[in-house]
UniProtKB/TrEMBL annotation:
UniProt protein name: Methylphosphotriester-DNA--protein-cysteine methyltransferase family protein
Organism of this sequence: Paenibacillus anaericanus
Origin superkingdom: Bacteria
Domain HTH araC/xylS-type: 85-183
Keywords noted in UniProt: Activator, DNA damage, DNA repair, DNA-binding, Metal-binding, Methyltransferase, Transcription, Transcription regulation, Transferase, Zinc
InterPro entries, sorted: Ada-like_dom_sf, Ada_DNA_repair_Zn-bd, Homeodomain-like_sf, HTH_AraC, HTH_AraC-typ_CS, Me-P-triester_DNA_alkyl-Trfase, Tscrpt_reg_AraC-type_HTH
Gene Ontology biological process terms in this record: DNA repair; methylation
PANTHER family: ARAC-FAMILY TRANSCRIPTIONAL REGULATOR, HTH-TYPE TRANSCRIPTIONAL ACTIVATOR RHAS
GO molecular function: DNA-binding transcription factor activity; methyltransferase activity; sequence-specific DNA binding; zinc ion binding
Lineage of the organism: Bacteria, Bacillati, Bacillota, Bacilli, Bacillales
Cofactor(s) needed for function: Zn(2+)
Length: 192
């Protein structure tokens, strides 16, 4: 399993977040028990954890279902909604990395086609559009709340070139990054 994905999943286990309910199962090697990611039992050490994308895989590997969190009972999220939530989490944490659909799919160990179709059905837009929305949200926040230059902000949201960032931002919002920073309209437009 990819280390970034493992870290995301393990953080969810530590915080008992429901993001991966029904998507991944936590196998604890020391006890041979398999849990939901939200299990209230003592958090296992990362080195003792193996994640499985299906309960069946965990059971086949010799794990027994936890009596406390009962991973065999139905979770709150359906598998499609759980997948979409998982995609959102990855995009929110890696929006500047220009993850392609194939890279996202590889992180989730599913096909790009299945990812695109399922995500769009649940959310109404594609993972690529979600990435744009997240980048725009962060760009707007940085413009208003930081003193970073336009070039630095562009780079922070995944645009190496300031002119590319400015063109993209203007295209999405109808206003240049500088004008946005200066109060949405009044400022001069010479942001190059
Ligand atoms: Zn448990």
């Amino acid at each position: 399993m990819d280390q970034k994905l493992f870290d995301l999943l393990y953080a969810a286990v530590v915080n008992r977040e429901s993001t991966y309910e029904g998507v991944y199962y936590t196998g604890v090697k020391t006890t041979k028990i398999v849990c939901r990611p939200t299990c209230r039992a003592k958090t296992p050490k990362a080195m003792n954890v193996t994640f499985y994308s299906t309960l069946e895989d965990a059971l086949q590997a010799g794990f027994r279902p936890c009596k406390r969190c009962k991973p065999e009972a139905n979770g709150a999220l359906g598998p499609d909604a759980a997948l979409a939530a998982q995609v959102d989490t990855i995009i929110e944490t890696q929006y500047k990395d220009k993850l392609t659909l194939s890279q996202l799919a590889a992180l989730l160990a599913i096909s790009p086609y299945h990812l695109q179709r399922t995500y769009k059905r649940v959310r109404g837009y594609s993972p690529a559009e979600k990435t744009e929305l997240v980048r725009l949200k962060h760009a707007q926040r940085f413009l208003l709340e930081s003193n970073a230059t336009i070039a630095e902000i562009g780079e922070a949201v995944g645009y190496g070139s300031p002119s590319h960032f400015a063109a993209w931002f203007s295209n999405r919002t109808g206003i240049s990054p500088t004008a946005y920073r200066n109060g949405q309209g009044g400022g001069d437009e010479s942001d190059e």
